[in-house]
Amino acid sequence: MKVCVVGLGYIGLPTAMMMAAHGVEVIGVDYNKDLVKTLNEGKMTFEEEGIDNLFKTAVNKGIKFSTEGVSADIYVVAVPTPYDKNSKKIDPSYVVNAVKDVMKVCPKGAIVVVESTISPGTMDRYVRPVIEENGFIIGEDIHIAHAPERIIPGNMIYELQHNSRTIGADEPGIGEKIKEVYSSFCQSEIVITDIRTAEMTKVVENTFRDINIAFANELTKICRQDNMDVYEIIRIANKHPRVNILQPGPGVGGHCISVDPWFLVGDYPNLALLIHEARKINDSMPEFVLGRISEIMEEHNINDASRVGLYGLTYKEDVDDIRESPTLQLLENMKRHLASGVKIFDPMVKNKNTVPNMYESFDEFLNDVDIVVIMVSHTHIKENMDKLKGKYILDTKNICNLDNTYRL
Ligand SMILES: NC(=O)c1ccc[n+]([C@@H]2O[C@H](COP(=O)([O-])OP(=O)(O)OC[C@H]3O[C@@H](n4cnc5c(N)ncnc54)[C@H](O)[C@@H]3O)[C@@H](O)[C@H]2O)c1
Known about the structure:
Number of domains: 2
Strand order of the largest sheet: 3-2-1-4-5-6
CATH topology of the largest domain: Rossmann fold
Number of strands: 13
CATH architecture of the largest domain: 3-Layer(aba) Sandwich
Bound molecules: nicotinamide-adenine-dinucleotide
């Protein structure tokens, strides 16, 4: 069984390597020449616990990387699926283009598995037509399926092996064939269902998480207005055996939770009302953080935004992925309010030109600011908390117990 994984990003690459490490013949394909060159030089392209060892094992077992598609039995498509900022619907263009490329090289009988997160109906509306336009008959000379991914950056390697998976396939037997490949490394349950159910299930999972985060964030705003301690209230409420409120935060970023619920809002605008409100609440949090920063500046007569330092640029702790991060959203808001010169530090982000005023050195960063806003709870800040002594701290993650600490 030969598998071609198309798209070697945060999802496609570890998946391809995991399959290869477990004995599957794998070629990973990405149209990004630099990325493929880096991999072929034996260098990993992002940081993740345990990924360097997995990379070595996969290379030893013969994984190949290329910019060109090849003939294979199964194609796993793991390319981006953003949403259209106007219509809120899925932007299927990456998936469509990747499938078009697959059509140029795939033999009869191949299975095309879309692993990217897609809105319900995407396989029917966008993937089927591309395949049929290329003269293939689905169900006869080509087969399609959707197998979404659930792993969380920061714990990818463990979760690839231990999370339950879903495979959506409408033809009998096809789900089983795909399951054989994923079973090479996945030790958990693999549920086979139809394509539409698999599409909807994945989007629902991330939407559930977005709504629950929004509830905690809305509580924060209510509590702030009347000076109630939201963390204490959540702590006590969670002692109820059927209550489990999440922790509030500075917003929601990343490529999943802040994106996928929009697919439902875009496709079901008159029905996805709670989902839409949750998105709006979570998107409003960076602005709320900005309001809190202004209050602290006013209280301490700090008039210059360049005395404010944002700690953390990534969308979550201990990863290097900054996509859609609350800090990036906050910086956009600051620009609109003409608050320029704010300083940034993030130990996980190697490219210090990612945004203006980014520091290499934590100590220099601290020297140049009076207010530190903890946006991300990297292990690094937890281990260096003492260095914040003497600063005014806005702790959006509730991890700091120093004097002069403000919370959301
Ligand atoms: N990152 C996550 O935590 C996560 C978790 C679960 C699901 N997902 C979903 O997985 C999918 C992929 O996400 P990601 O984070 O890996 O994206 P990514 O941006 O990290 O990687 C995508 C890769 O696909 C490549 N690519 C795009 N079009 C291509 C084409 N036509 N041919 C070859 N290569 C192509 C890009 O160059 C890039 O390297 C998305 O649908 C995402 O929603 C992501």
